[in-house]
Amino acid sequence: MDSIDLEVLKTAINWSQSGAYTILATVVRTWGSAPRPVGSMMVMRGDGHVRGSISGGCIEDDLIRQIRSGEYRATAPQTLTYGISADEAHRFGLPCGGTLQIVLECVTDQSHLPALLKSVSQQGLMTRELDMHTGAVTLTAGAHAVSLSFDERHLVTVHGPRYRLIIVGAAQLSRYVASMAQSLDYEVIVCDPREEYLDEWDIEGVQLSREMPDDLILELELDSHSAVLTLTHDPKLDDMALLEALKSPAFYVGAIGSRRNNARRRERLALFDITEAEIDRLHGPVGMYLGARTPPEIAISILAEMTAIRNGVPVLQSHALRPHPAAPAEAGCALA
Predict the structure, then answer these.
(1) Which of 46, 90, 100, 182 is the most exposed place for a label (fewest CB within 10 A)?
(2) Within 10 Å of residue 153's Cβ, how many Cβ atoms?
(3) What is the domain-level CATH number for residue 224?
(4) Which intervals hold domain XdhC Rossmann (predicted)?
């Protein structure tokens, strides 16, 4: 579940609990080219206010018109299809004649959204099933579908667990990485036993730990929705964290440092109880090659690489690229 979906759930709960007529829209099928993928969600209030997106704007505008005018005030789940004809595709701005099918459901207490949000926020995995005839919702722990299934009678969606990012080190670069990662809705944990760094931390919403990084990583029991970044430049902290992270199911493990320093790091790691295949999982120098120089630019390069890997997009490691003549190989922390 990405940050937009969590924002939609939170908003749907707040609007519904305030007594406002609230509709949750979910993309259940697409044909041809579609602006948003299956599973995308949007919430709409009775006065036309929206959060999230199902088409990029055009279908939202049509639904806003229907709800504001009172044309749509259903309380039972409904299915709407946009873009069947070429005229409709043109009218609603669907690219290349694409077709989009959505399910609309009125948000009530029986929608069980607070329980769903609580589960996802606590790293849980939950399956939600909506009965299209009765509007009844059933929540069950675990994944009981691949992602989303819809057979006209039941809409089944899988939610969670939330992605986590563990950052080792609380210096300047970590602040930019943490802040940007929060906007991508990672649960961010910053670990640094050095009081002179952690005591100055002032970014809200980030969990702080003074434990030794390897102890924390073992305690967290990392899963495939976890990422680890070591950013201290101190082998006593970074290497011990990497030893545990590389043996975990974490989808991304990265370490800052130059090509030379990362080669030395790999040599040090090989002296411990860790396999060559596990060492090969290390992303270092960390980040996608962007010619980054400043801490914000380096943070962007790191999160760009994490996003590509999370989405299954092949990434050519920065250490495999030949630097531009104007950019020395050891310049910038994404390379350096």
Answers:
(1) 90
(2) 9
(3) 3.40.50.720
(4) 165-306
Question: Do the domain assignments include residue 333?
Answer: no
Q: Are residues 241 and 120 in the same domain?
A: no
Q: Per the structure, how many domains does the chain have?
A: 2
Dmax (CA) of the chain:
70
Whether 107 and 168 map to the same domain: the answer is no
Match 């948003």 to its residue by tokens: 36
Q: Could you give the CA distance from residue 34 to residue 31 in angstroms, rounded to a whole number?
A: 7
Cα four-point dihedral sign 281, 285, 291, 295: positive
Closest CA to 113 of 201, 44, 11, 182: 11
Mean pLDDT of the chain: 86
Cβ 51 vs Cβ 70: under 8 Å: no
Domain assignment present for 94: yes
Residue type, 217: I
The string of pLDDT tens digits covering residues 256-309 is 988 999 999 999 999 999 999 999 999 998 999 888 889 999 999 999 999 999
pLDDT value for 311: 87
Question: What pTM does this model have?
Answer: 0.69
Cis peptide bond upstream of 296, omega within 30? no
Q: Is position 331 within any domain?
A: no
Contact call for residues 28 and 148 (beta carbons, < 8 A): yes
Q: Say if residue 102 is in the same domain as residue 61.
A: yes
Residue in 279, 309, 304 with CA at minimum distance from that of residue 289: 304
What element of type H or E holds 180? helix 172-183
Going 67 to 70 to 75 to 79, the CA torsion angle's sign is negative
Q: Are residues 170 and 155 in the same domain?
A: no
Q: What is the pLDDT of residues 3-17, one digit of tens each?
A: 668 889 999 999 999
Region of 135 on the Ramachandran plot (φ > 0 left; ψ -120 to 50 alpha; else beta): left
Q: What percent of the chain stands above pLDDT 70?
A: 86
